[in-house]
């Protein structure tokens, strides 16, 4: 990797960190303004169920790269607000699946509309072509990150094991 490429990677890493901090702070501020008390991460669970359809809690945790206890808390909030319902699993009546309610669909659509309006404000001066290129590159980046994740974790695990034995 040459110096220019190294600077690009440093810039990408710094901007991803900056974006995450801005998004976290904005989500907290939106939560305070709307006073709905719903964890912003619970919205991710709602949207995943909306996109993928009813599923068991464990499958939802896997789809969101989360652990069972975190998903359990988020689902409890969604069920309490009647955005999601627990239904008998058609494949195994002893188990339950989580399904978005009509109220949940309406709330998700309201959130999606607000999110899209906000992103449109952010990219208001961008050309449609720039938005398309950015969308394609961002999708590629996230897909590649997801594919590289097991290798990254294996490298860190190997490094940790080598240094622990020293």
Can you walk me through this structure?
- The model has no long low-confidence stretch (mean pLDDT 91).
- Strands 1-2 form a two-stranded antiparallel ribbon.
- Helix 3 (57-63) packs across helix 4.
- It contains six helices and two strands.
- It starts with a helix and ends with a helix.
- Strand 1 (84-89) and strand 2 (92-100) form a beta hairpin.
- The chain is globular and about 55 Å long.
- It is mainly alpha-helical.
- The longest helix has 37 residues, at 128-164.
- 74% of the residues lie in helices and 9% in strands.
Topology diagram in text:
Elements: H1 3-34, H2 40-52, H3 57-63, H4 68-80, E1 84-89, E2 92-100, H5 102-122, H6 128-164
Antiparallel strand pairs: 1-2
Features:
166 residues; mainly alpha; two-stranded antiparallel sheet; 6 helices; 2 strands; globular
Provide a concise account of the structure shown:
By secondary structure, this protein is mostly helical. 74% of the residues lie in helices and 9% in strands.
Q: By helix and strand content, what is the structural category?
A: mainly alpha
* Radius of gyration computed on alpha carbons: 20 Å
Spatial order of the strands in the main sheet? 1-2
Number of helices: 6
Main sheet characteristics: 2 strands, antiparallel
> What is the end-to-end distance?
29 Å
Which percent range describes the beta-strand content? Answer: 5-15%
Shape: globular
**Arithmetic mean pLDDT:** 91
Helix content: over 70%
Low-confidence runs of at least 5 consecutive residues: none
Give the SSE order as H and E letters: HHHHEEHH
Count of beta strands: 2
């Amino acid at each position: 990797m040459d110096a220019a490429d190294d600077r690009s990677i440093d810039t990408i890493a710094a901007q991803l960190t900056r974006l995450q901090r801005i998004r976290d702070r904005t989500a907290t501020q939106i939560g305070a303004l709307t006073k709905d008390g719903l964890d912003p991460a619970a919205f991710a669970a709602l949207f995943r169920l909306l996109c993928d359809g009813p599923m068991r809690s464990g499958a939802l945790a896997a789809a969101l790269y989360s652990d069972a206890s975190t998903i359990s808390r988020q689902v409890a909030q969604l069920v309490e607000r009647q955005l999601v319902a627990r239904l008998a699993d058609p494949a195994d009546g002893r188990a339950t699946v989580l399904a978005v309610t009509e109220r949940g669909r309406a709330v998700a659509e309201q959130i999606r509309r607000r999110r899209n309006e906000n992103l449109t404000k952010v990219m208001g001066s961008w050309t449609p072509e720039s938005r398309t290129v950015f969308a394609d590159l961002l999708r590629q980046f996230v897909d590649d990150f997801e594919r590289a994740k097991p290798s990254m974790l294996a490298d860190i695990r190997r490094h940790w094991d080598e240094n622990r034995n020293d």
